[in-house]
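REQUEST ID: PR-0412
SUBMITTED BY: lab tech R.K.
PRIORITY: routine
TASK: structure prediction, single protein chain
INPUT:
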Amino acid sequence: MGTMIKTMKIINIIRGNKMGNTQGFMPKRIFVTLGAFALLLVSISPLAAQDSANDHAGAAAAANNPLANMTSFQLQDYYAPDLYGLPDESSNTAWLRFIHPFGKVLLRASLPLSTLPTGANESVSGLGDLSVFAAYLMTDPSAPQQYGVGPLVVAPTSTNDALGVDGWQAGAAGIYFNLSSPLIQWGGLATWQTDVSGDEDTNLLIVQPLLFLQMGKGAYLRSSGAMTFDIESDDYYVPVGIGIGKVIKSGRSVWNMFFEPQFTILHEGDGYPAFQIFAGIQLQLLAKP
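STATUS: complete
OUTPUT:
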């Protein structure tokens, strides 16, 4: 049990969360709902589309830009039915995320809600750590290539200290995104965090390449697996994803839905997903003209 708890702590830090002890909550239902809702909206989107093809193309490209100068509300979910070293166990993490620009500073706050295994047929669920970073945009918001950097802070808001770090963490975040082509957009997000209080040592680097291929009428293919490196223990895992998404623009609102299976191609250490499904829905609010 001690080894498993230590493994799950690593996963919690990686995903920016710590779990509570509410047994009945099942976030994987959120994953099922996200997938079903995304498929439904994709199927009816031709009826909902009200804008021109050019508007759709521009909205689709901007909708996946992590540095977009827009207020955004996001619900994302990672469901892992197969974990290395933990047979017959699964995990689920749902993210509630809010993004808002303040001039050239983009603030992103993320709060996870997770269910993770703690033993044979046992799991814990609850709120995790609040993660916040502020990226200063070092380019013009309308530039075809954009990048930003800034500080990152993780607050110890978990509901169960046994499954997380008992102190504050701090670090940095860097983002790059290339919108030069209307067909392909690409970039990446990198974060690093380490402990600044408490008794537990953490030192994590996460690198998330981003690739989007526009298919027309708001549909796109995507890949966004986040590579994780636990510098403290020398453990790591590298997932690769291939998924599909759909952007629907209506007035000042832009809806973005996606479904992306991810396969781990390299790993060291137990507890990491061998396979996971990443799904999400986000709403972006365009600025008034």
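NOTES: The CA atoms of residues 57 and 216 lie 7 Å apart.
REVIEWED BY: pending
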